Amino acid sequence: MKYFYGVLCILGFLLPYGAFMPWLLENGPDLSLLLAEAFFR
């Protein structure tokens, strides 16, 4: 059971970055653009 929760922990860490990394690679580390797209669109 310990390994199952370990895998879930790793997936919970990596999956959100799967959505964020393409945006980051396209736009770079522009915090103002990130906030504008996240909250004002």
User: What is the residue-mean pLDDT, rounded to a whole number?
Assistant: 91
- Strand proportion: under 5%
Spans of at least 5 consecutive residues whose pLDDT stays below 50 are none
Count of spatially separate domains: 1
Instruction: Describe the main β-sheet briefly.
Output: none
Q: What general form does the structure show?
A: elongated
Helix content: over 70%
Radius of gyration: 14 Å
SSE arrangement:
Elements: H1 2-27, H2 31-39
Can you tell me about this structure?
The chain is mostly helical and 41 residues long. It has one domain. It is 85% helix and 0% strand. The chain is built from 2 helices and no strands. It has helices spanning 2-27, 31-39. The longest helix has 26 residues, at 2-27. The protein is elongated. It starts with a helix and ends with a helix. The mean pLDDT is 91.
Which terms summarize this structure?
single chain, 41 residues, mainly alpha, 2 helices, elongated
Short description:
The chain has helices at residues 2-27, 31-39. By secondary structure, it is mainly alpha-helical.
